[in-house]
Amino acid sequence: MTKRLGKAAILYGPGGPFKVEEEYADDPQPGGMLLKVELCGVCGTDVHIYKGQMSGVPFPLVIGHEPVCTVEALGSDGMTDFNGRPLAVGDRVYLLGLKTCGYCYNCTIGFEPSACYNGMGYSAKPFPDEPPHFQGGYSQYIDIKPGFTGIFKVNVDKPEEAVIMEPIAVGIHACDCTTFRVPNTVVVQGAGATALGTMIAAKEAGASKIIVIGAPQARLDVAKEFGADIVINIDEVTNPEERIRIVKEETWSGLGADIVFEVTGVPRALLEGIAMMRNSGQFITLGHFTDNGTAEFNPFKHFTNNQITLRGVWGAAHHHLARAVPIVESRKYALDKLITHEIPLERLGNVMEQLAKGSMELDGRETGKVAVAPWM
């Protein structure tokens, strides 16, 4: 048996502290595997967990659900990833932490496994009766249990190119909830990793024109590079009515956007986004993974009279991530440009506190995607 001493940043409760502790990682059980974490994206959901805004999350806990890893050891011969691709030691893989039950209503009848009633997995609702070490991406290893299927082999040159695979998968889920017609104008509210992942998914789904609304400018510059036709900087165009006017001017006969994706997590953005849509448009909200407050709606004005379709999207399931793999491997998008900061485990508590306060600057630079590099 090989003993590997590894570190994990364990979150002991809402607001911290994170404590970096060492533990031995054993060889994997038959049918399991041991992953060595290269890089793990810091997601807004992780910030919500840190702030204690996610119900049902046990502590202590190792969080981090966007890990790019290499295969350190395999528990059995002939193992494959979710897509049936053979796995070998040293392969680069991405982990989708969700383990669905396969038998609840949402898994079998509703066909929405991302909303599995009995979902378990890594980084948020860890497998029961196990110590907290090596169960999330903010660690040097992840111990994969036998029978877990959420492993995706990804052929890229460096881990930075694969870190936002899960945000792209969430965007694919959102696009699956819409009907794309030709031509169509799509608005993406937000410019974070999930917003840009959604923009990529919309482009791949056939959006004719894409308008991205958000800040800071550096993120909007990346959106333009990825294919956004128009970007609107909310720091410069501060009046919502003006933003609505600009969007409508860019649509057919000034009627409004066909599809709006809200990826901000700001309740008032929903009202603005609905006002940007044409009659009978489609509004998809995927930016609210915790309770950020309410927005006041008028059922007649906002819904019935406009005949809009309103849909909420929660996370991504395995089939969404499976479809994100070829997008990442195509290298059509310079995804590594989204990574602005890489931090060691020891800095996680300080950085998480800054992000929890809404800071968009770290070490004197604007933040894009922050990632934890556990071997730094």
Structure overview:
With 376 residues, the chain is of the alpha/beta class. It folds into 2 domains: 4-163 and 334-372, Medium-chain alcohol dehydrogenases, catalytic domain (Quinone Oxidoreductase, Chain A, domain 1, Alpha-Beta Complex); 166-312, NAD(P)-binding Rossmann-like Domain (Rossmann fold, 3-Layer(aba) Sandwich), CATH 3.40.50.720. It is 24% helix and 25% strand. It has helices spanning 44-50, 105-108, 165-176, 193-205, 217-226, 240-249, 268-275, 299-304, 318-330, 348-356, and strands spanning 4-11, 18-25, 33-41, 67-74, 92-95, 98-99, 120-121, 141-144, 151-153, 185-189, 209-214, 230-233, 257-262, 277-285, 309-312, 339-343, 361-362, 365-366, 369-372. Strands 3, 4, 5, 8, 9, 16 and 19 form a 7-stranded mixed β-sheet that branches. Strands 12-11-10-13-14-15 form a 6-stranded parallel β-sheet, with helices on both faces. Helix 5 links the parallel strand 11 and strand 12. Helix 3 (165-176) packs across helix 4 (193-205). The mean pLDDT is 94.
